[in-house]
Amino acid sequence: METNIRDWLRTGCEDGLRYFLGGAYNGVYFSLTTQRPLGTNIYDKEWDLLIVLDACRVDALREVAPEFEFIDSVDSVWSVGSSSHEWLCKTFTDQYADEIAETVYISSNPHTQPTFEDGKRPPRQYTVPVTWADWNVVDDDQFELLEQLSRGHRYDDYFDTIPPNVVTDRAILAGRNLEFERMVLHYYQPHRPHVASAYREQRAITDSEDHPWEAIKRGEASTADTWENYTDNLRLVLDSVRRLLDNINAETVAITADHGELFGEMNQYGHPEGIPHPNLKKVPWAVTAATDRNTSTPSTEVTDQEKPSDSDTKARLEHLGYI
After folding, report:
1. What is the CA angle 246-249-251, rounded to 5?
2. Pairing of strands 182-190, 49-54
3. Is the separation of the CB atoms in 249 and 82 below 8 Å?
4. Nearest-CA neighbor of 190 among 317, 64, 275?
5. How far apart are CA 51 and CA 288, in angstroms?
6. For position 254, what pLDDT does the model report?
7. CA–CA separation, 229 vs 221, rounded Å?
């Protein structure tokens, strides 16, 4: 058991009752759910290639699925987390070490490095007074390959996130050049910022595209408009997934999400840690297949990106509201 009561009291006094109660709740929640996870681990499902769409709701994927020929139907499963960091820490555990050792994991999610290299554990937003959480997360060197994609693309001047085609290019090259049993691809879309329009137009994103939840609360954006931007972000990543499926071999491809997204339910937006709401914990599960028809030849090398620095990672997480 770990205790941090003094810092919890100080944080509550400085940041308000919400953080005081949030810390107490998260201490209990993670203590219980690390020992008895709520949800289905991805390694308990059948797949060769797993495509993780960050913050994708079941109803959103069902809405756009008719536009994509590779999605016949969208089922659902219960995720082990309501945020990326929680999902990572509860998915890649010692219990599945043998499967992880055969997995190539390519990720654009900024929580990847803090989780597997720095040993950070949930919660990130709250100070917990008492916890007996039993985290048993693997290290980065226990994967066949773990690649945290960093910035360094031609969209740097426009927005601070990694476009889906960067992930797709890396996956195609890995599929053609590496030997492995499984591959997990963690795309960052449809997670905010909602960059789809800006990506296509090569322009800077607006404040409401970058911070949609704050814009809704300020009355500067409607929930309907934000939903449209969100589903357009989903279309953007699925367009890239379409190219991937024509340029990699995988008998069983599963499309899922690490968690969902709240659009005002419980007066909450985004994906708070440790919240077992169905629109957060229930995620899509769509099965398809992939065949390398060699229609795309990425020019980058699999190992040519520099590892993101600790300061870069922290800046991204702060910008996205995680810390």
Report:
1. 110
2. parallel
3. no
4. 64
5. 11
6. 98
7. 11
Q: Hey, what are 254's tokens?
A: 């599963």
* 3-state secondary structure (DSSP) of residue 131: strand
**In this structure, are residues 273 and 102 in contact, taking their beta carbons and an 8 Å threshold?**
no
Residue showing tokens 């709701």: 57
Pairing mode of beta strands 250-256, 49-54? parallel
pLDDT digit string (tens) for 272-309?
999 999 999 999 999 999 999 999 999 765 444 445 55
Reported in sequence order, the residue ranges of 109-268 that DSSP labels E, i.e. its strands, are 130-131, 145-148, 182-190, 250-256, 262-263
Helix (H) or strand (E) holding 286: strand 282-290
**Strand-pair partners of 75:** 285
**pTM for the complete prediction?**
0.91
Of 164, 240, 155, 242, residue with least CA distance to 203: 155
H and E: helices and strands count for the chain: 13, 11
Cα 295 from Cα 172, distance rounded (Å): 11
Architecture of domain 40-120+136-319: 3-Layer(aba) Sandwich (3.40)
Query: Torsions phi, psi of 182, nearest 5?
Result: -140, 155
pLDDT of 69 higher than 90: yes
